[in-house]
Design brief:
The chain is of the alpha/beta class and about 575 residues long. The chain has helices at about 1-15, 45-65, 70-85, 105-120, 125-155, 160-170, 170-180, 185-200, 205-215, 220-235, 240-265, 270-280, 295-305, 305-320, 325-345, 360-370, 370-380, 390-420, 420-425, 550, 560; strands at about 90, 440, 460-465, 475, 510-515, 530-540, 565-574. Helix 5 (about 125-155) packs parallel to helix 8 (about 185-200) and helix 6 (about 160-170) crosses helix 16 (about 360-370).
Length: about 575
């Protein structure tokens, strides 16, 4: 996928037989986008320039991004830890009885960070493996997005490309999604690169990349690729496009079957199992939470603020100010609306489900902002480029971009300042004077455990203590009973707690991770000074006791004084 990203523009040059400076999509004179300061060679935004800008942004994401979903830890980081170090937590989805997750996705990442695991070893340096993979994910994100930006520049003009690049670099949604170790993020990479290839008229490669990204990543995101595939079949060479998609799909499915047969010890079609469980009545995903219809719109407003508003306005703006390139533009952005509508109709919702279309939201928003003068001209019938109204409308574009960037910075800062404690607490220097073989006990904060990569070594054991949670918790992989091939009796697909998931003798706890919130009448284990001694503490934003506006966005002084904070604490037994 990374190779395809780096070569998407060169393939276009080879096919046309002209240099990159000569390749451009020509619009009628009155429809040409306004020019901006060139950021790339010959007035275009180059792949290299976009990649450098994106890589800087993705580096900051890799080093400081939160883990936004416990599924990322227990369904991906923990199984990966097991593949590398033979210890880690297993969820029921990886039981050979259910086999909902393909090991192909994990194996690709294990191969990617295998050298880092060898270099850092199995001790305290394991956290370096965690961040090495994050850096690799950030690089892959930057590669696919840089290809998209270059294709946008050649197809729609430098201004749209520049706006897209800025939004990709700075919006909170892209900051969060770009370095997440999730199948939906992998599908995002595939859809982004496929969109870049589509805009470069490389339709065969676009469909092949889309198929690979969907099947290795998240099968449900096939719906988000539907407009691209239909466009490629109608406007490309039908049989070449069809065969590219079919062959890629068959090869990817065969790889998944073979890899899963090795790890599960029997033939399992995990891709189909996942679809059956979630769509065809094989399970009930609503057991894990139900949200209202506007859940994704609310999340998009937090993660993209006014950018999502402009993105939703674009289809109307395209109707009012038509351009000859709108066919390709609409094909590229239509997955946003199709995907948001489809996912909003599903009862079980999670923010990561929308990751596949995040870069396309940036494209749609950028295109809408660039068209503001056209819209004003159409509505007001002011066609004179020297008119005051049109000049003022052009000023709206940088002001809109500035507002989006300020709100994005505020949102990202609030998340990092308010919720980063779990990523910093379980670090090696906090284990001073604690003997090897310690049991780290975690109660209600199990869902914020940052993964076994943050433990000093495999001799540290994590155990859950009962704080009232009655759902099914992960269990450690049992390597002696068969590891990935076993079907443990304590797992079920009904989210019902297992009798053995909690540590019954809490006196065996050597370390305790706990979030102490200011609640009347509520006692916390770590506050018992005769038993526990705090070795590390960090503040943690109490979202239930903090006003929505001040907790959602970082506003200097007001953020610290209007919000309520708890204490995220690592304690050791005296």
């Amino acid at each position: 996928m990374a190779t395809a990203a780096a070569s998407s523009s060169s393939s276009l040059r080879k096919r046309t037989g002209r240099s990159s400076a000569a390749v451009s999509f020509q619009l009628p004179e009155k429809e040409k986008p306004d020019t901006v300061v060139p950021l790339g060679s010959s007035g275009q935004i180059s792949f290299g320039g976009a990649f450098v800008a994106l890589m800087i942004a993705r580096y900051f994401s890799a080093t400081s991004n939160l883990i936004h979903d416990c599924d990322e830890v227990f369904n991906y980081w923990e199984p990966l830890h097991y593949l590398l170090y033979k210890s880690g937590f297993q969820t029921w989805e990886y039981s050979s009885q259910y086999a909902l997750r393909s090991y192909l996705y994990l194996l690709l990442h294990a191969l990617l960070v295998g050298p880092a695991a060898w270099w850092y070893g199995s001790g305290a340096g394991k956290v370096g493996v965690f961040y090495s993979l994050r850096f690799a994910l950030g690089a892959l994100s930057a590669l696919t997005e840089a290809a998209l930006v270059e294709s946008i520049s050649r197809r729609f003009g430098r201004r749209v490309a520049a706006y897209t690049l800025v939004l990709l670099c700075f919006t909170s949604g892209c900051f969060n999604a770009s370095t997440s170790f999730l199948p939906s993020t992998f599908s995002m990479y595939g859809i982004t690169l496929a969109s870049a290839l589509l805009l470069a008229d490389e339709l065969v490669a676009a469909v092949a990349v889309a198929a690979f990204g969907v099947l290795v990543g998240w099968p449900f995101s096939v719906l988000a690729t539907a407009p691209l595939v239909v466009y490629a079949l109608f406007f490309g060479k039908f049989w070449k496009v069809f065969l590219a998609g079919a062959i890629t799909s068959i090869c990817t499915i065969l790889m998944s079957l073979l890899v899963d047969h090795y790890f599960y010890g029997q033939w399992k079609f995990s891709i189909l199992n996942l679809v059956i469980y979630n769509v065809a009545g094989g399970g009930d995903s609503s057991l894990y939470g139900v949200e209202g219809f506007f859940f994704y719109l609310k999340n998009a407003l937090l993660n993209f603020n006014f950018a999502i508003v402009f993105a939703l306005m674009l289809p109307v703006m395209m109707l009012l100010s038509r351009r000859s390139s709108d066919k390709q533009l609409f094909c590229a952005i239509s997955p946003i609306y199709l995907w948001l509508l489809f996912m909003s109709l599903q009862p079980h919702k999670e923010e990561r489900f929308i990751y596949p279309v995040y870069p396309l939201i940036c494209l749609a928003s950028a295109a809408a902002i660039e068209r503001i003068p056209d819209l004003v001209s159409k509505v007001s019938r002011a066609y004179d480029p020297e008119s005051l109204l049109l000049k003022l409308s052009k000023l709206v574009r940088p002001l809109a971009m500035a507002l989006i960037l300020v709100l994005s910075y505020s949102r990202t800062t609030s998340l990092l300042q308010g919720y980063s404690a779990p990523m910093h607490l379980l670090l090696t220097d906090n284990y001073v004077s604690v003997f090897a073989g310690s049991t780290v006990c975690i109660g209600s904060e199990w869902h914020r455990f940052p993964s076994s990569f943050f433990l000093p070594s495999s001799s540290y054991k994590v155990s859950w203590v009962d704080d009232g949670f009655r759902g099914l918790l992960p269990f450690p992989f049992n390597s002696t009973a068969g590891g990935t091939r076993v079907a443990p009796a304590y797992f079920n697909n009904q989210n019902q707690a297992s009798s053995g998931q909690f540590l019954t003798e809490e006196e065996n706890c050597s370390l305790l991770v706990e979030l102490a919130l200011k609640r009347s009448g509520q006692a916390f284990r770590g506050e018992n000074a005769t038993t526990w001694e705090a070795v590390a503490e960090r503040s943690f934003l109490d979202n239930q006791k903090s006003p929505p506006l001040y907790r959602a966005f970082f506003i200097p002084w007001l953020w610290e004084n209007k919000n309520t904070f708890g204490v995220y604490r690592l304690s050791r037994k005296r």
